[in-house]
Design brief:
With about 80 residues, this protein is an all-alpha fold. Helix content is about 75%, strand content about 0%. Helix 1 packs across helix 3 and helix 2 crosses helix 3. The protein has one domain. The longest helix has 20 residues.
């Protein structure tokens, strides 16, 4: 089956592509388009970077006094 992949189609189906949900023909067509399109290549690279960016952006340590208060509160509220 021949598939005509545009940049818009690529963007719309990027999630399914990244998760391996596209059938073989669609996956292959999208890969071929990405290989020949710098805009879509950048889109795929950016999409793949999202988990790393989120991890780095949320990688912080809770202050010890806040940890202590939270533990006390959880202990007090979890008792029947």
């Amino acid at each position: 089956m021949a598939v005509d992949v545009s940049c818009g189609w690529c963007a719309d189906n990027l999630g399914d592509y990244a998760e391996g949900l596209l059938d073989y023909d669609l996956h292959t067509a999208l890969q071929a388009h990405v290989a020949s399109c710098s805009r879509c290549t950048r889109l795929v690279l950016d999409y793949r970077a999202i988990p790393r960016i989120v991890r780095r952006g949320t990688d912080c340590e809770m202050p010890h006094d806040v940890q202590s208060r939270l533990r006390r509160w959880l202990t007090m509220t979890s008792k029947p």
